[in-house]
Write a structure and sequence with these properties.
Fructose-1,6-Bisphosphatase, Chain A, domain 1, D-Maltodextrin-Binding Protein, domain 2, 2 domains, seven-stranded mixed β-sheet, three-stranded antiparallel β-sheet, 8 helices, globular
Length: 264
């Protein structure tokens, strides 16, 4: 399969996972549990994971999912091409029922994201990007949607710029004093700025769209939180760097936790 065929599989997987997520979201019981790292997980996380793994099996590439088995680095360090998945990014937002959660699927080659899909199951926003092919957004896609459909019917990203305004997007549920200090630095540099809080990978989507200028993350994230958004950002001509704004974020590290980063 070429990259477009692979990302078509990822789009279908994300949409199928979205259906499972909506079923749980509109049910009375999420079956919320707390994992060893003290983060919540729900029935929707597990069902979305199962759908994605089943759909991506046909591609023949290994899947590293937040809700799957995390193989030792000795086993995965030789992977040249693999899927990096967060079946339900923004579980806290899911539990709060504020609609700001996503399905994240990224294709990683040689430690770099080359394509990605992000789907918001309740709002129906679908984002997909392939480096050298562009990034696109489509609202309420059909169940048989492909990357070609996005190119024909979607909006090419970035779709707009923000004149005379500097917009910073930050986490709705995870912020800290270091982030506030960074925002103060931006205020000194740009004057008046607007801060927008958003859940899950939708912050990276805002930067890709051009509705936000920057997303700083000074805090803990894992590789599956950022990989799909990183691919879409790169396909839209943006990127994710470490705080030096020169070193790009990489993937399939021995420690799957990301360092602090700036999406811009």
């Amino acid at each position: 399969m070429d990259v477009i065929q692979l990302i078509d599989k990822a789009i279908i997987a994300a949409l199928l996972a979205g259906t499972k997520i909506r079923e749980v979201y509109f049910s009375p019981d999420f079956d919320v549990q707390i994992k060893d790292d003290q983060t919540p997980v729900t029935l929707a996380d597990h069902q979305a994971h199962d759908e994605i793994v089943k759909e991506l099996a046909a591609t023949g590439s290994p899947v590293l999912s937040e809700e799957g088995v995390h193989l030792n680095y000795s086993e995965r360090k030789s992977w040249k091409l693999f899927w990096l998945v967060d079946p339900l990014d923004g579980t806290k937002e899911f539990i709060k029922r504020n609609d700001e959660f996503t399905v994240n699927i990224a294709l990683i080659q040689d430690c770099q994201p080359i394509a990605g899909v992000i789907y918001a199951p309740v709002t129906g926003e679908l984002y997909a990007g392939i480096i050298s092919q562009g990034a696109y957004k489509l609202l309420k896609p059909q169940e048989n949607c492909t990357f070609h459909h996005l190119q024909l019917s979607g909006i090419k990203l970035p779709e707009q710029t923000i004149p005379n305004e500097f917009v910073v997007t930050i986490s709705r549920s995870h912020t800290n004093s270091e982030t506030e200090e960074y925002i103060e630095t931006l205020q000194k540099e740009h004057g008046s700025i607007r801060v927008v809080t958003k859940g899950s990978s939708l912050k990276m989507c805002m930067v890709a769209e051009g509705t936000a200028n920057v997303y700083p993350k000074i805090g803990k994230t894992m590789e599956w939180d950022t990989a799909a958004g990183h691919a879409i950002l790169k396909a839209a001509g943006k990127n994710i760097f470490l705080p030096d704004l020169k070193t790009e974020l990489t993937y399939n590290k021995e420690n799957l936790q990301n360092p602090h980063f700036i999406a811009i």
